């Protein structure tokens, strides 16, 4: 088993795409990269702790390689937006790939460069690639939100503009 950590804006929207894949053993919503120990959602939501909302994925690389995780990550986000993602604004909603090994770092950097070279986007790719930091699981109500609060999740996602962006920029 290996770990992968991704920040793609609201962590509620980053669980389902990975959860549906073979070889994924767990996905935890949480916080990483900040200065406060054991932060709460209320603290992180202020944008003052330095944390990213993120997901930590435990996966079986022989079944679902890290490169496939990267490929799936990119198509969930707007990699050109440094101010957050979609309707969620602020540093806590920035995008980042947090690498756990030197191999993950190299693969992440290559995938970012490949995306930049593709010229898919006119603006630069601003998603950070950073060493994995302490990961703090979010409160229980945020875990598997898309399953537990289907109606609220669907409404939030609909209002966010994420799906329209994905359709317009990745599905063509």
Automatic annotation (TrEMBL):
Gene3D superfamilies to which the protein is assigned, alphabetical: Peptide methionine sulphoxide reductase MsrA
Catalytic activity field: L-methionyl-[protein] + [thioredoxin]-disulfide + H2O = L-methionyl-(S)-S-oxide-[protein] + [thioredoxin]-dithiol; [thioredoxin]-disulfide + L-methionine + H2O = L-methionine (S)-S-oxide + [thioredoxin]-dithiol
Signal peptide: none
EC main group: oxidoreductase
Matches recorded under InterPro entries: Met_Sox_Rdtase_MsrA_dom, Met_Sox_Rdtase_MsrA_sf
Assigned EC number: 1.8.4.11
Region (Disordered): 151-172
Residues of the active site: 10
SUPFAM superfamilies in alphabetical order: Peptide methionine sulfoxide reductase
Residue stretches of biased makeup (Basic and acidic residues): 151-164
Example of a GO MF term: peptide-methionine (S)-S-oxide reductase activity
Pfam families, alphabetized: PMSR (PF01625)
Residue stretches making up the Peptide methionine sulphoxide reductase MsrA domain: 3-154
Alphabetic keyword roster: Oxidoreductase
Biological function: Has an important function as a repair enzyme for proteins that have been inactivated by oxidation. Catalyzes the reversible oxidation-reduction of methionine sulfoxide in proteins to methionine.
HAMAP family assigned: MsrA
PANTHER family per record: PEPTIDE METHIONINE SULFOXIDE REDUCTASE, PEPTIDE METHIONINE SULFOXIDE REDUCTASE MSRA 2
Recorded family membership: Belongs to the MsrA Met sulfoxide reductase family.
Name of this chain's protein: Peptide methionine sulfoxide reductase MsrA
Annotated gene: msrA
